[in-house]
Amino acid sequence: MSKQILEKFSLDSNTLPITRLFGTDGIRSKAGELLNANFALQLGYWVGTVLQEQANERGAVVIGQDSRNSSDMLAMAMSSGLTAAGLEVWHLGLCPTPCVAAVTNTTDAIGGIMISASHNPPEDNGIKFFNSKGIKLADNLAQEIETRLRANYNNFNCADTANQWGKHYYRPGLIDNYTAMVQRSLIPNLNFQGMKIVLDLAWGASVNLAPVMFEQLGAEVILLHQLPDGDRINVNCGSTHLDTLRQAMLEHQANLGFAFDGDADRVMAVDCQGRVVDGDYILYLWGNKLKEQGELPDDLIIATVMANLGFERAWQQTGGKLIRTAVGDRHVQAEMWRTGAMLGGEQSGHILCHHHGVSGDGIQTALHLASLVAQSGASLTQLVNSSFQTYPQILRNVRVECREKRSQWQECELIQKAISQAETAMGNEGRILVRASGTEPVIRVMVEAINQELTNHWTDQLVRVVETNLAV
User: Which positions in this protein are listed as binding Mg(2+) (predicted)?
Assistant: First the structure.
């Protein structure tokens, strides 16, 4: 690589934020700011270098992407860095995040990369990383990559790999490995005939796969936001914006509805009454099925601190156990490996079942929930009615643009005092969770209480304190 090109791809280290680059789910920011071609090329080089050292060999890295307008740019820049490090790149093109994890896990690839900002708006993007088993990178590896990136940012030089350049191959055919894996996870002779199912594809990564899988099983499928559209991905649609899906369910008198996020690693369900069925309900219903079949070790489910108290107490009443982790499916995954649990997930719709895969998978989860409904002979509404009642819960986001303020919010004495006051007032009739998002520039304030009045009161109080002290 010529000196002129190296200079072109070198950036002033001052452009890197002083806070940690890796968040809850890889690296995420507005496209063109931190996540530009220059940054991605150098990041790709150091990711490739660290992955090779872990594998003790050169190998292939799988890259997938969602439909964002910036995803092509970032995928190509990452590929340039990886091939500069001497690695082979298998580019899948448009596909869900769990597809990248599955292909990485079932081939001899030494790592995987997904270009996506998940449920974030179109102007954002992100980069997620997987090891050779399709599991998100451990913190120590992420830190090693970041350390080398920062140390060499002004003097990027790939001369060490001269004459050992890697190659880039476009291999969308490998996506078939993923679809076959999902289909094998379903019970034999599964049939959705007579079921009308609405799918909200969020203009994202699920558009080419989810409709076909449901139609092949005999369902009548109604599609919303069904094209790959980088200008509209997640805009008022998908798993974080359910009003359109709820309206479509009532309009079409459908049996089931599913909404995926931009990279299809999460799903939210809607029943025939337009009622939202979130990850807590999915975990409870799927958990009970596995428990009946003797396929849930220790009757254990792994959830996060966001899981509703109503879910936790209802699961415990069945004799089940629930362990909470920090927010983020990688934390759930780590606890599942540690405990041997086979089912875990998040209220937001990331569901992991180790019987069938190594990552959260929205399409697979939707198919299994539909299968559970088909096998039960009951409607999703009836299954939910016989499960549990949630405690009133409110989650409010306070936008805080300053990274430093977000990362240091716990040092604010007035916020800590307000949280302590609320916790003392509610006692065991509620709980509070305040945290900085690892994927968006917001502080999340969650309040859950035995009644709506308490929930509303303390949410308003805490949001006001966070806004006053951090948002201005």
Answer: 118, 261, 263, 265
